[in-house]
Amino acid sequence: MALCIGVMGAENQPLLIKISPNIQDPIKFHFMLHSALDVVEEKSQPLPKTPGSISGADLRELYLGLLYPSSDEVRVYGYCANTRMKMILIVEASNTTLRDNEIRTMFRRLHVAYSNMIMNPFYDVGQPISSKSFHDFVDSMIAAFGVGKLVNPTLYSVEMEYFEDVPTLTGIRLLLRS
Fold first, then answer.
1. What is the CA 149 to chain-centroid distance, rounded?
2. For the chain, how many structural domains are there in total?
3. Is 50 a domain residue?
4. What is the residue range of 96's domain?
5. pTM value > 0.90
6. 82 CB contacts (<8 Å, ≥6 apart)?
7. Which residues of 21-53 are buried (b: 16+ CB within 10 A; e: fewer)?
8. Minimal CA–CA distance to 66: which of 30, 93, 97?
9. Tens digits of per-residue pLDDT, 101-119?
């Protein structure tokens, strides 16, 4: 289960930090999020240019993977977008069913939801996130991560049904989210 999701801006300022309501000590997770930023900065550096490579090409991977196993209780994963916006996920270490591919997919969905949210012309990039739909999406990820029922983060409401880890469309409603 996802215990904590953090979205940090380009200057490492917290835009959104959501912690599972079952957590007894939220300060501990704030500390883990902020200490993970150092590892994210180190891992998100562009690869050195090689002879014959395209000049100016940024060849880094967005998904940073496991940043560090902070303890026997949790694992910390990271993602850094091209705009230097960072996402950090803290999951239970006891959840052995989580594969790296599932965490990568979760970060992609979170990035799509973030991209849809910043398309709002009234949102100032770099300010704390106040979008209700984005908060609801992150809450649904914390509540259902690892269960297989995630809200689709697209601008339109899409109903998804999961059968043996293969998503299939069951119907599309073209309703704009507020």
1. 16
2. 1
3. no
4. 2-45+58-176
5. no
6. 58, 62
7. eeeeeeebbeebbeebbebbeeebeeeeeeeee
8. 93
9. 888 998 999 999 999 999 9
